[in-house]
Amino acid sequence: MSEMIREDGRKFNELRPIKIEAGVLERADGSAYLEVGGNKILVAVYGPRESYIRRLLEPNTGVIRCRYNMAPFSVDDRKRPGPDRRSSEISKITADALRPALMLENYPRSMVDVYIEVIEAEGGTRCAGITAASVALVDAGVPMKDIVVGCAAGKVNDEVVLDLSEVEDKEGQADVPIAIMPRTGEITLLQSDGDLTEEEFQKAIDLAMEGCMQVSELQKEALMKKYSTE
Amino acid sequence: MIYVEDKNLVIPGQILADEEYYPGRGTFKEDGKVCSSLIGLVSLRNKKIRVIPLKSKYVPKKGDVVIGKINDVRFSMWDVNINSPYSGILPAFEVFGRDKKELSKVYDVGDVLFLRVIDVDEVKKAKLGLKGRGLGKFKGGIIVDISPTKVPRLIGKKGSMINMIKNKTNCKIVVGQNGLVWVKGDEDMEQLTREIIHTIEAEAHTSGLTNKIKNKLCLAIDGELPVEETEEEFVLEKPKLQNFKEELEQEEREKAEAEAQDEEEVEAEVEEETEAEAEVQEEAGEDGEAEEAEAEEKEDAEDKPNFYDVIKELKKKSQSKKDKNISYSDNSNNNSFILNNR
Lengths: 230, 342
Description:
The complex is a heterodimer.
Chain A: E1 18-22, E2 30-36, E3 39-50, E4 63-70, H1 85-98, E5 110-120, H2 125-139, E6 149-156, E7 159-162, H3 166-171, E8 174-181, E9 186-190, E10 193-194, H4 198-227
Chain B: E1 9-10, E2 15-17, E3 22-23, E4 27-30, E5 33-36, E6 40-45, E7 48-53, E8 65-73, E9 77-81, E10 88-91, H1 92-96, H2 103-106, E11 112-120, E12 126-129, E13 136-137, E14 142-145, H3 151-155, H4 160-169, E15 172-175, E16 180-184, H5 187-202, H6 209-221, H7 241-261, H8 269-284, H9 289-299, H10 304-318, H11 331-341
Parallel strand pairs in B: 3-7, 10-12
Antiparallel strand pairs in B: 1-6, 2-5, 4-5, 6-7, 8-9, 8-11, 9-10, 11-12, 11-13, 14-16, 15-16
Helix pairs in contact in B: 4-6, 5-6, 8-9, 8-10, 8-11
């Protein structure tokens, strides 16, 4: 059963091909570019910088703000530009997923801005966004406890599988995106959409965790590659 | 048990050592393990582990000398952008003392100043001052932006790197601890210096950099490589105030020398002012104090409050009723006016 091949030829626990690059933008403090399957995501980080929004600033620590945005041409049918319900939600959960890893106590009253731009979308953009955003944050020199990484698992054709593609997400029965801090295994994001039994849910989380660990290695590799001298 | 070596590149969350080691800057301790919180290079000293960041933002510290740009002119202070998450304020009191003057006539929005951080309060707002040698407004030149963590590398051991660049390019260079560098000289040389500084920033963590830069400079200026010397290695160090002092002192000395040599050839506005000040001082000459004052003025070329006091004294003496609107932003005209009146 486990040897079943998926629609795109992957095994149940196989990730789509991933490419991560750190420090791609000249003018941003930190940036990252990431490709997972057909997803293409660019993340820019600015800060810590002076908080220009008074009501947001915290007297004893810095704050993080995220903006997730899909380009109008990123999906098959043109997406109406501008924020919508979905992207507001993803912006919020991304900020919440990254926040536990940040150590902004040394930057009180400051603000870190993360801009996630989806250039091409093919399922699993929120996890890809989180993965890329934490690479960009490291690149910006923001102090962090760990590099957060996101990955999804789901249920397709009554089978729990890793890293859903767009087709699998649409036709599948469930989608469980998670984000973790790989060193401690703490979960910073957990969403579940669809029907899963308790057993399947547990299995999905375990599978997604495994996937996160694999992606985490690629994140580290990308950062090392960018800054190590030959 | 330690998992890394000195000068290794580490990333956030990487476990560096077990509990017998102490966590220093850029690290934290969790579950008895010392972990890195930054992307940077490991620095091991005895049993203390630090991580020196590759990139960071400047956080104001008391006593630092920084380069700032006037952002806003307020009622009794200037708002200064010091390339940091925290803005600096320059109170009018620090410039005028007790006198009341119009602020925008002295320093206006966009002016670039060399300042000292006098105090940092609990919300990290930096109070700045202009009291000290070489502090004041820059005229002309360009500003080069580097990461504050690379500042010690740019200066080098006892200023070796920065002095080499200065000598080769004949540029005046002032480095602020907030990662801004002011360069003034020949236009071509300014551009070359900017390039060189960016190269240093990009390759700060490589060894034998001073020699590499030297070769590059010689190739660009003389068109040939210098005579081979033994290679020296430099380590990233914490910024030391000493370096700046030495640098400033040397710069002042150079300036004084230059002035002594060509008194007729007045090029830079700064120097023009200095001379004008000196002249005024001589005219004011009271019981041989002039010489002392002159020497002082030459060192403190940009110490404007002093100059203002001098003018005020003069004003009292000359008892001229016409020049009531004197202010030192347009001092050159007023100077001659006072002198003529006397």
